[in-house]
Design goal:
Elements (H helix, E strand, L loop, with lengths): L7 E5 L8 E4 L6 E4 L9 E5 L5 E2 L2 E2 L23 E4 L6 H8 L5 E4 L10 H10 L6 H12 L4 H12 L6 H12 L3 E5 L7 H10 L4 E6 L2 H19 L9 H16 L7 E5 H6 L1 H11 L6 H7 L21 H5 L10 H4 L5 H9 L2 E2 L3 E2 L4
Parallel strand pairs: 7-9, 7-10, 8-9, 10-11
Antiparallel strand pairs: 1-4, 2-3, 5-6, 12-13
Helix pairs in contact: 3-4, 7-8
């Protein structure tokens, strides 16, 4: 089959087999082209008389409609780097991640815990060994992106899909999932990464240009919420209380790890959001984040972000993968502005915790300081 020579400037992305459909990034709506004979293993800019370059094991031969011939340069079409929300547990991360994920140029993943292991097989073994380490979010994400649904049958397909890819590195799986949601910016909220510096180091190696949101919440509120969550986990999994550290210790460790990690990240790639400010001044909070990370914002987009219940993962899933976000939030995933609980403010904290809280912008007696 011969193609008419045409002059194009396009960006083909992803792993595409012959006969599949590819997308030209940067158009609204996305424009589709038919791959005639290709196996693309990397993002490849092509600017020639026709799209016909040897890529590893094959050739790209496509025909673009006339209205697509005057395309932007490939370097102008690349998706923005991913955004990761880092926080201690119980810091409003499910609410924040799902709300920001409702931005039309962002895809908000559930908690997948990818960089808590080096390979897919290792990740699944860890989940089998530690009952608390569930992979509900990963199963639901794969089910949605690979099989277009999150029913029990879709989850089973997702688990089989992952089993066949146990040798994949978690970096490879992350790249694959990002390609599935392109050109939207990937957004991941992963409290577990803050638990170990090795997880943060693996994340940084995989995504050296990533942007970060440090989501913080008053240690008194977090401590009380974690203790309550521990009680639920103990009941669900039958784990003895002595296995758990205190909520205050979790808040301390996670936020210190995050601060140490973010000290190595340039200022233009990081920002801080306080959970209390999110709950009481949500529009201002999202205006600040979108401006920081070059995301457009208008009243219609803001209205969408105020409705987290519309998110693709904002509901309790099937029995084999029900969560992937905070269980309590998923049972009623609406945005509810609220004030800090004054009873929790009277919880006694260690001096080291109070010092760290002050460093993060909290007064030692009244919660977030006024400038927030």
């Amino acid at each position: 089959m011969m193609l008419e020579p045409i002059r194009v400037s396009a960006l083909v992305s992803g792993a595409c087999l012959s006969g599949s459909v590819a997308f030209i990034i940067g158009y609204r709506p996305l424009q589709r082209i038919r791959i005639i004979n290709a196996f693309v293993l990397a993002r490849v800019p092509v600017r020639d008389k026709f799209l016909g370059c040897a890529i590893h094991t094959g050739h790209i031969l496509v025909h673009l409609p006339e209205h697509m011939l005057d395309c932007p340069k490939p370097e102008d079409l690349s998706p923005l780097p991913p955004i990761f929300t880092l926080s201690a547990p119980r810091s409003c991360s499910s609410l924040f991640g799902i709300m920001l994920g409702e931005h039309p140029d962002v895809f908000g993943f559930p908690e997948m815990r990818l960089f808590a292991a080096a390979t897919v097989g290792q990740l699944e073994r860890r989940a089998r060994l530690f009952r608390v380490f569930t992979l509900d979010g990963l199963y639901r994400a794969v089910a949605q992106l690979e099989f277009d649904g999150q029913t029990e049958a879709h989850i089973e397909l997702a688990k089989n899909w992952l089993t066949k890819r146990q040798s994949w590195s978690t970096e490879r799986l992350w790249t694959h999932l990002c390609e599935k949601v392109a050109p939207r910016t990937p957004l991941a909220k992963e409290p577990i990464y803050a638990a170990h510096s090795s997880f943060l180091a693996r994340l940084n190696r995989t995504c050296p240009d990533a942007r970060y949101i440090h989501l913080v919440r008053d240690p008194r509120s977090v401590s009380a919420s974690i203790e309550a969550e521990f009680g639920m986990i103990k009941n669900r999994f039958g784990i003895r209380a002595r296995w758990f550290v205190t909520g205050e210790s979790v808040w301390n460790r996670c936020n210190r790890n995050i601060l140490n990690f973010l000290a190595t990240i340039p200022e233009d790639r990081k920002t801080t959001v306080h959970g209390e400010f999110l709950l009481n001044h949500s529009q201002e909070a999202f205006a600040s984040v979108t401006k920081k990370f070059d995301l457009k914002l208008n009243p219609a987009i803001l209205n969408d972000m105020m409705r987290p219940e519309n998110g693709p993962f904002a509901f309790v899933g099937p029995a084999s993968a029900p969560y992937g976000n905070d269980a309590k939030f998923l049972k009623n995933p609406a945005f509810r502005p609220q004030s800090a609980n004054q009873l929790q403010q009277r919880i006694q904290l260690r001096p080291s915790t109070l010092a760290l809280a002050k460093k993060l912008g909290y007064a030692t007696d009244i919660g977030p300081q006024a400038h927030l």
